[in-house]
Amino acid sequence: MKKILIIADDLSGAADCAIGFTGASHRVVVMLEAERDQMDPHADTTAVDTDTRRLSPAQAAARTAAAFRALGGPGQRLYKKIDSTLRGNWAAEVAALQPVAGLAIVAPAFPATGRALRGARVLVHGTPLEQTPTWQLENAGRDANVATLLNEAGLATDVLDGESLRDDPAALAARIAASAAAGTQALIVDTGSEQALRTLARVTLASDVPLFWVGSGGLAREISALTRRPAVEAAPDESPAADPHADLPVLALVGSLSPVSERQCAMLRERTGIEQLIVPPDVLRAGPAHADWAALRAQIGATLAARADLLVRIGRDDAFDPAEGAQLSTSLAALVEPHFARIGGLIATGGETARAMLSAARIPSLHLQAEVEAGVAVGRPLDPNRAHRPGIVTKAGAFGTDHALYAAWLRLRNQTEPDVVPH
């Protein structure tokens, strides 16, 4: 099996897409920058975060194409990871990759998290995407039809009912070949079940048509299951039993304001008694110039120095704008960074939050090791010579069950509880 290159537009997305390959005994590395000299030569699967979600479509397309030129090559298959709720500039990015990567097989469904595709429209637990709070927060008034978005990006599209062909791989293969021959550039495949995605993965892995995959963690999970490698024993420094930071506190950073994150934070606090600090957005906008900056930084330091676990969240005010998420996350990371060496584990909710914290802590790449629950990844800094290598959990903001943050905390604490069912 060829190696896999995953290009994602945010860090939590890169990790939640790549983590399925860890479960299939791949060596998986997630990178913050598309730099070939930083690639792990032993990795079977490499995921890179291009950090393009907040850019203009043209900027995002250019950066995505540059990432493929930098990291792509013979012996690789390309997976363009997109958000299962269609956030970001994914259509422009697919359009930039299509001329060099072939037919785009577009299947954003992720059944394990309630995402399906029907008639080229995303359903979230049965609700049309346009009606969900996630879409309304950032895209109110915009059409969420996958075909429309790809057409607007300049791609010739076709829609295929993959669900009805889930038991007929030969027919599915013939339809894909026919679409490619007819000049289709992006083939949208309606799916709503793991079985349909599994058939699509099997057919496209064996296909002679030049193609690349466009999807969320759902299709990636099925591809990983079909490319399982022999199990490799973990190195001693990757074993929880050998963790030198096990007695240090866990820090949870939550930059997402989604209702999903709100419920997850509530359960984490209820089950663990973790201390909570909500940082007002005006403090983060002003940075060190704000009168409360020093006091908040000192409060974070004192809590962690006492080896108490801490949940730090970005608050919300009337001036809040979703477009300022990266700025607020960067400021939050700067607030925490002086105390980062005191933690034994990090839980980062929201791709911008995770990237900002890892960048501030000078961690350019993660070696993914396990999955807390569907799409929630845990890893460690890749550099084995780094003295401080805390366990790091990443999770998209509007993602996961209500147990997700609590389950991540249990994982970093090397604890289990009967009411938390491992994935």
UniProtKB/TrEMBL annotation:
It holds the Pfam family NBD_C. One of its GO terms (molecular function) is kinase activity. Residues 4-222 form the Four-carbon acid sugar kinase N-terminal domain. The keyword Kinase applies. It comes from the Bacteria. InterPro entries: 4-carb_acid_sugar_kinase_N, 4-carb_acid_sugar_kinase_N_sf, NBD_C, NBD_C_sf. Keywords: ATP-binding, Carbohydrate metabolism, Kinase, Nucleotide-binding, Transferase. Residues 251-405 form the Four-carbon acid sugar kinase nucleotide binding domain. Belongs to the four-carbon acid sugar kinase family. This is Uncharacterized conserved protein YgbK, DUF1537 family. It comes from Paraburkholderia caballeronis. The lineage of its organism: Bacteria, Pseudomonadati, Pseudomonadota, Betaproteobacteria, Burkholderiales.
